[in-house]
Amino acid sequence: MDIKEYENYHERKEHSRQTFPYNTYLCSMPLDFSEVPMHWHDEMEIIYIKKGRGMVSVEFDERIVSGGEFVVVLPGQLHGIRSVPGESVEYENILFRPEILYGRKDDGLRQDFFNPLFQMKIVIPAFYGEGVPGYWEIKEVLDGCDSICKEPVEGYELLLKSRLYLLIYHLCQTSGQRGRVKNSRPHEEMKLVLKYVELHYMEKITIADMAEVSGFSASHFMKYFKQNMGQSFIDYLNDYRLTMASRMLVASEASVLSIAQEVGIDNMSYFNRVFKRKFGMTPRDFRKVNENRNL
């Protein structure tokens, strides 16, 4: 189970063929899950809060986002979501690949607008709420996309595509630093590390492995990771595995033992102990509590 499967198995609305990669799905925290670990992907993502409040992090800038507000995540940006303790949040994820908007390779729009935006050569806000330039215009576009997808008619892809062009226009209008390349280099090693964990968490992973992935010495890697993530790599890896296990307990009928092994934990006693420490109950009790939820 990767991050996308973890987050969207609950409800995924396919709005097109493979040639039109635009998808939305609804999530609720903590009903569906308590967090989405830091990750990145090649799609553009918009996290649109529908109700309540949640904590959203983009490139290690974490903020509380409330109903009606949204977060724009460009391709390749690190981001994660977690619930505010004691509160719930419902949000819509909108995902599409930039290629959906491209024309010819030498298309002037691609060179002048799409590439600078998607390659982060212009700086735009990530968090949008009242008072942020472009908020109302972009919100109207997003609401329009929802309306189109709610009752799609023949040719709705054309309507969606026109809305996405309008979205890009308004995003570019919010940039006050056009032409200045944003320096995202400090996070490149972290992106390699987190992607490796996402793809290999079910396998044995050592500090030496991650030092090699990041290009650091083992000691420098451990210091680098803790400075950026606020916890040791081993603690992060264990937490990641438990988060994935919690999702599998609800999403499948596999035994607790097989789930523990699937997330890379072979010692059943240890798995039960650390799971209870994180979630306040045993894996079996966690499954029982959640079995009646419509996930």
Can you offer a commentary on this structure?
This protein is α+β, with helices and mostly antiparallel strands and 295 residues long. Helices cover 44% and strands 19% of the residues. The protein is built from eleven helices and nine strands. The protein has helices spanning 3-8, 108-118, 135-150, 156-173, 188-200, 207-214, 218-229, 233-251, 256-262, 268-279, 283-290, and strands spanning 13-14, 22-29, 35-39, 44-58, 61-66, 70-73, 79-83, 89-96, 127-128. Strands 1, 2, 3, 4, 5, 6, 7, 8 and 9 form a nine-stranded antiparallel sheet that branches. A hairpin with a 2-residue loop joins strand 4 (44-58) and strand 5 (61-66). The two termini are 16 Å apart. 26% of the residues are buried. The model is unreliable at 9-16 and 178-184 (pLDDT under 50).
Quickly describe the structure:
The protein is an alpha+beta fold and 295 residues long. It has helices at 3-8, 108-118, 135-150, 156-173, 188-200, 207-214, 218-229, 233-251, 256-262, 268-279, 283-290; strands spanning 13-14, 22-29, 35-39, 44-58, 61-66, 70-73, 79-83, 89-96, 127-128. The protein has two domains: 3-173, Sandwich (Jelly Rolls), CATH 2.60.120; 185-290, Arc Repressor Mutant, subunit A.
Q: Could you give the count of β-strands?
A: 9
CATH topology name of the largest domain: Jelly Rolls
CATH level-two architecture of the largest domain: Sandwich
User: What Rg do the Cα atoms give?
Assistant: 20 Å
Q: Are there runs of 5+ residues with pLDDT below 50, and where?
A: 9-16, 178-184
Largest sheet: 9 strands, antiparallel
Overall tally of domains = 2
Q: Which geometry do the CA atoms define?
A: globular
Question: CA-to-CA gap between the ends?
Answer: 16 Å
The structural class is: alpha+beta
User: At the fourth CATH level, what is the homologous superfamily of the largest domain?
Assistant: Jelly Rolls
CATH class value of the largest domain: Mainly Beta
What is the string of helix and strand elements? HEEEEEEEEHEHHHHHHHHH
Percent range for β-strand residues? 15-25%
Average of per-residue pLDDT values: 88
Number of helices: 11
